[in-house]
Amino acid sequence: MTGLLRREPHVIAAGIGLLADSAAGQAAKVTRVDWAPPMPGTDADLATVLADSRRAGANALAVQRMLAARALLVDVVQAGPALGLAAGEFLHAGPPISWERASGPMRGALMGAAVFEGLADHPDAAAGESALGIVSLEPCHHRGAVGPMAGVVSPSMWAFVLEDPADGRRAFCSLNEGLGKVLRYGAYSAEVIDRLRWMSAVLGPLLQAAVRRHGPVDVTAILTQMVQMGDEAHNRNRAGTLMLLRDLLPDMVESGFPAADIADAARFVAGNDHFFLNLAMPACKLALDAARDIPGSTMVVAMARNGTDFGIQVSGTGNPWFTAPALVPQGLFLAGYGPADANPDIGDSAITETAGLGGFAMAAAPAIVRLVGGTVATALAATRRMYEITLAEHPLFGVPALEFRGTPAGIDVTLVARTQILPQINTGMAGKVAGTGQVGAGLVTPPAEVFPLALRELAGRVPASPPG
Length: 468
What we know:
Elements: H1 2-6, E1 10-14, H2 17-25, E2 29-33, H3 43-50, H4 55-68, E3 72-78, H5 79-83, E4 89-92, H6 104-116, H7 128-131, E5 136-139, E6 145-146, E7 158-163, E8 170-174, H8 190-214, E9 217-218, H9 219-227, H10 238-253, H11 259-270, H12 277-289, E10 300-306, E11 309-314, E12 322-325, E13 330-333, E14 346-347, H13 351-354, H14 369-372, H15 376-386, E15 390-399, E16 405-411, H16 413-419, E17 425-430, E18 438-444, H17 450-460
Parallel strand pairs: 1-2, 4-5, 6-8
Antiparallel strand pairs: 3-7, 3-9, 7-8, 10-11, 10-14, 11-12, 13-18, 15-16, 17-18
Helix pairs in contact: 3-17, 4-12, 6-8, 8-10, 9-10, 10-11, 16-17
């Protein structure tokens, strides 16, 4: 004890800022520990779930299945036959929602899709869904698909088909239109509809011919490389897009399509840094779907937003969505727009964060801060913080700035509830008024309320202990 008194004091402060500030003011060495008590009202449910004898084994199995999944691009097809969509049936991002509760960008995308499908002559929100020919709305996730932003998929659109070679499971995603005034951001001008028609008439069939000629494209291998090349596979996909084009361009040239169509398609893909996002998303869905429906597992297998609600699904609870109002992202805005123009968070693209990419891989993509705000230190800190709420490190997604440590993967509901650390998401921002399009990009988290809801359901599913 006498020896301790002769050394310089080193104060470790856990969650008490006043104590740390006071010690630092007296020139003491201070280590601040980011600590908080569990989320309010979760103590009993946490105790129940943490005592579940199945939990450790179930989570180990969920992690094993997630990390073992591989994704190959095997085809490009029309969405209608592939996803079982008839005329007037539309898919959308996020948990289930009705037209009455749909946000501006969701309605804008649905109106544009209705015009694209020939169900309506012009977009008219006042006319309502029946006048637009909308027969049904269903989440993309319910059909084995994912959709960025509004995520609207209609029968005539084309979609990537990704497959896990180990078991033949498949996941789907529409083709990426680019940024700005595009359907997925709720825009529906003539320019938007013309682009969709070109994608349906030229780009989709050309990519189909190229993929079938080339053979399966290893999307997981591209993801592995792009993380080491400065992409985080959500808001930055530049390296991934160019690697995909490198693989497919020779087969596009040899496809027999007119040279002008091939040149237009090559320019479109090369000039659209987000094109690979629509491959990263279904690759992540394949991995997380492999981890579904494991009794006792507390691992999150989907995070998705429809512009009104934010929802999560958990392996150990099956298919129910746990939802709360979506938050508005904070970040950088395009010229002429500001926070008042932004819609609450929207899109299925948070599936990338759920699998250990996107906001969880910001340390691998420091240039992302130029798009979403913050600093390089912010990006590094975000990834480090996510290790506190995840079950594993992804061995394929090594972060150079962290000595190739794998990205944090496998969000654990109990760890989120115990630490109050919320998953970090990188995202684009859609204008809240239908027809606006993209207004910016930034950072957001899930609403905290969804995790206690999931925890309560998990606690209710813990088997009763046999009488002693």
